[in-house]
Amino acid sequence: MYTPDPRLKHLFDWHVESNSTWEEQLSRARFHYRNPNPAPRPNTFRSIGLVFFNSSLRTRTSMEVAAARLGAHTSTIIPGDGVWSMEWRDGVRMDGQPVEHIREAIGVLSRYYDALGVRLFATGTDYALDQNESRFKKVLEAATVPVINLESAVYHPCQALADAATIHEHFRDEVKGRRFVLSWAWHPRALPQAVPNSALLMAARLGMQVTLARPKGFELAPEIMKLADSYASQHGISITQTDDQDAACEDADVIYAKAWSGNMRYENPDAEAVLRNQHQNWRIRERHLGEAVFLHCLPARRGVVVDDAVLNSSQAIHLLQAEFRLHAQMAILERAWKLL
After folding, report:
1. Where are the alpha helices (DSSP H) in 214-260?
2. Which of 76, 111, 167, 329 is least enclosed, having the fewest CB within 10 Å?
3. Whole-structure pTM value
4. For the stretch 219-236, what's the b/e string if a residue is b when 16 or more beta carbons lie within 10 angstroms of its beta carbon?
5. How far apart are CA 181 and CA 245, in angstroms?
6. Which comes out higher in pLDDT, residue 302 or 44?
7. Segments in 113-221 forming alpha helices (H)
8. How is 199-219 classified by DSSP, letter by letter?
């Protein structure tokens, strides 16, 4: 397991942080939501380099605006797009396409910036590499400034903090014991599992009654389930899994839809696609809502993951959820730069 460097305020994932840190960050995100127009911060002479190996809308823009509100400068760096392509392997002769090794790249950026944000999805081809977060850990090893995980192979802590703050704000802190349904949804592509992993862990940590609805073959990793179960047990509850989406959504307080790939993707991607395409009826429809509010990390494919009627309803609070990405990023940056 990754052990945080006490000298640096990295954010790898919340499960390696204390409950007090989690609660503090949750409180600060909500503080920024309730104080959306603070007096401009004086220039803090701080900067953050945002390294995006994968596409982004909310993560990128919320981090840029959050840094600006804290009086800091940002640069967005996209390897392969005007920036050298990078080599991840150690001990190899670099005579192919990659021009720069990740160790030098992160080492140099650490000398330019006061923090780094890195978005680095799962490979989808090497299960052990992804589950061990081997590539992201190389970034942490090479960095000499705080690194913020903007979504890695297994975790998306920025999204998790925004999700938790949204739920607390909506339910006015009456969260524990509410029914939280994390529902798989079909998608034409095999998507990573970082968001559903983090959503599951977040809800269990909040003490919600969690139901994971997914077809057979789309279970989350055993390590994630074990960790979620440990959070649930602290609140005297357990996590339920089912392949019956309709039954799962009955009497829900929160329905969180997300598409993700089956683990068969690593062994036989063609077979995974065949299995996934057998479940195109798995999407959230108006009849599923009942009294529940709807969440999605976005982007959401309308008519694929969720129906228009759901997203257009007053029960959809996905835009509030997206707004909280900004407030969560401000809290995370404050911690990284010790501004609290």
Report:
1. 222-234, 245-249
2. 111
3. 0.96
4. bbeeebbebbeebbeeee
5. 9
6. 302
7. 127-131, 134-142, 157-170, 194-205
8. HHHHHHHTT-EEEEE--TT-P
3: pLDDT confidence band, cut at 50, 70 and 90? low
Residues 6+ apart with CB under 8 A from 218: 184, 260, 261, 262, 276
Quick: pLDDT tens for 19-31.
999 999 999 999 9
Report which DSSP code applies to 34: H
Q: Are strands 115-119 and 47-52 parallel, antiparallel or unpaired?
A: parallel
Tokens of 40: 């401009």
Q: What is the pLDDT of residues 201-234, one digit of tens each?
A: 999 999 999 999 999 999 999 999 999 999 999 9
Return the C-alpha torsion angle 55, 13, 253, 323, nearest 10: -50
Q: Using CA atoms, how far apart are residues 152 and 167, in angstroms rounded to an integer? A: 23
Distances (CA, A) of 91 to 86, 94, 135: 14, 9, 15
Q: What's the rounded Cα separation, in Å, for the pair 133 and 127?
A: 10
- Mapping DSSP to helix (H, G, I), strand (E, B) and coil, where does residue 64 land? helix
Query: What is the Cα–Cα distance from 41 to 45, expressed in whole angstroms?
Result: 11
Find, among 200, 171, 173, the residue nearest to 184 by Cα: 200
CA distances (Å), 81 to each of 95, 150, 173, 259, in order? 20, 19, 44, 28
Contact call for residues 155 and 88 (beta carbons, < 8 A): no
**Rounded to whole angstroms, how far apart are CA atoms 191 and 300?**
12
Task: Report the residue count for the chain.
Answer: 340
Q: For residues 165 and 64, give the distance between their C-alpha atoms in angstroms, rounded to a whole number.
A: 20
